[in-house]
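Much of our argument rests on the idea that a fold can be written as discrete symbols. The record that follows shows the chain in one-letter code together with its fold in token form.
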Amino acid sequence: MTTSNEKPSLLSPNVANSNSGETHIRSFVHRRAHITPSQEQALARLLPLWSISYRDSILKPETVFGNDHPLILEIGFGMGETTQKIAQARPNDNFLGVEVFNAGVGALLKRIDDNQISNIRIIQHDAVEVVRDMIAPASLAGIHIYFPDPWPKKRHHKRRLVQSPFIQLLTSRLKPGGYIHCATDWENYAEQMLEVLSAEPMLSNTNEGYAPRPDFRPLTKFENRGLRLGHGVWDLIFTRNDTPTPELNWPKKEQ
């Protein structure tokens, strides 16, 4: 059931909604969010150029990007500041960003256009369904999950994105040697991330516990402000090992 203050999506046919029949717990809630005129203009003008519609079929990155460069999946890119900087610093990697909110999608589209970036594509849809239905097993070189909604209240922890079933699904899409990199500024969520990732038999921690921030993840303005105030930030980097992938029976949408 949508809430009365939900802002309708400009991409309602492609954005997952509460009537889609999904059986997983949503890690996001549609809220009324401010969107600037420039973001709205970017959505209208640039979405056909840089976005991919959700569909229940495997994505072919070499067709979408026009090359066979390594593919990195980013889940929840926010306003796209980090995505832009990493893509510019790593031109020989392709980046697939998944985000549900119009303001963030519009902001990243504007960044792509302003900076003439060619190695980013966007899917505006629920990340669980995108990974389940569109990403081939053992096809990703990396996965980025940066500062996901921490859902700080204990009764809401079940909505956190980093949960064992989803991490198992994500890991099945990684190539052997591929990595998953998470970052959060909530210590309790960091502890949960470490526990969940460490318990996944297909993953190996690259560090003893938390990892130092890698050079390729830039500090955002928000993160810099938090660090100045004494807030902590925790990075975790795990790699896909050679443990065989179990057969996964992730629930599909009801027809």
Notes: Confidence is low (pLDDT under 50) at residues 1-21. The chain is about 30% helix and 15% strand. The beta strands are 71-75, 94-98, 120-123, 140-146, 174-184, 203-205, 234-240. The helical segments are 37-50, 61-65, 81-89, 102-115, 127-134, 164-172, 187-199, 221-228.
